[in-house]
Amino acid sequence: MSRTFGVIGGDRRQAELAQLLAGDGHSVCTYGLDRWKPVGADTLDRAASAGVVILPLPLCKGDGVLNCEEGAVPTADLFRRLRPQQRILAGQVRPQQRREAEALGLMVEDYFLREELAVANAAATAEGAVQTAMEQLDQTLLGMECLVLGFGRIGKLLSCRLHGLGARVTATARRPEDLAWIRAYGYQALETGKLDGHLSVFGAVFNTVPSPVLGGPLLRQLPADCLLMDLASVRGIETAEGGPEVLWARSLPGRLSPRSAAAAIRDAVNYILLEE
């Protein structure tokens, strides 16, 4: 069934998403994506009038501000342009934005809560992390001691890809069952909160935990040339003046594999609309 979509804000993922939806035969209007020249670029009001409005992943890039390249759009202002009868979809919706929408009688559905999308995004993030590491390092991952902080979706997939390239993988977790799975996969296991004294051997550290796990004295235990990459939505590797440089590699799917990331969002949106 043909629908009218408004794709508002975001990065190249949303531009590719607009192309995919148009290719499926839908009417698509976009706002805030002129940098990538998507189909149907128009005004904010026009895009916000569509039957299905798709907002970015993540929804916000700051407190109360839409994740949009074309200027600051307060989410409260955007929601006032929408109507309760519209389907409004967004990724990683914060409590503040949910309250803003509900106060106007709007329901914002979080498409990033779909497990199939979260897994696809984790796979793209893990692949992008490996690509970025290979570009940053002056040696191969083969034989390198690599530490993956956290063993959630991204941690599992990243550990697998590093191991496949011949790296010596150590992964961390807090729960005993996750530590057991790490050992079962053939990796070395460390408790996330007990890293002291175990860090001097690593050539690369990848954080996937969205809370502080590595900083201060622990950072000083790492080799001076260790690659530090933070993949979490909230920094987990604390930095200090004069300390080692940390590469904060957020939104890798949007930068390195936007077409695949867009296809995963399109599929999640289709499942949501089919289930209505």
Explained architecture:
The chain is of the alpha/beta class and 276 residues long. The chain has helices at 12-23, 44-48, 75-79, 95-103, 115-136, 153-164, 176-184, 217-220, 252-256, 258-274, and strands at 4-8, 27-31, 52-54, 60-62, 65-66, 87-90, 108-110, 145-149, 168-173, 188-191, 204-207, 227-230, 247-248. It has a six-stranded parallel beta sheet. The longest helix is centred in the middle third of the chain and has 22 residues, at 115-136.
Question: What can be said about this structure in brief?
Answer:
Helices cover 36% and strands 18% of the residues. It contains ten helices and 13 strands. A six-stranded parallel β-sheet has the order 10-9-8-11-12-13. Strands 2-1-3-6-7 form a five-stranded parallel β-sheet. Strands 4-5 form a two-stranded antiparallel sheet.
Q: Spatial order of the strands in the main sheet? A: 10-9-8-11-12-13
Shape: elongated
Secondary-structure element pattern, one letter each: EHEHEEEHEHEHEHEHEEHEEHH
Cα(first) to Cα(last) distance is 13 Å
Helix and strand content put the structural class at alpha/beta
Fraction of residues in H or I helices? 25-40%
**Major beta sheet summary:** 6 strands, parallel
What's the tally of helices?
10
- Tell me how many strands there are: 13
Question: Which range does the strand content fall in?
Answer: 15-25%
Report the uncertain regions: none
Average pLDDT rating: 93
- Rg, rounded, reads 20 Å
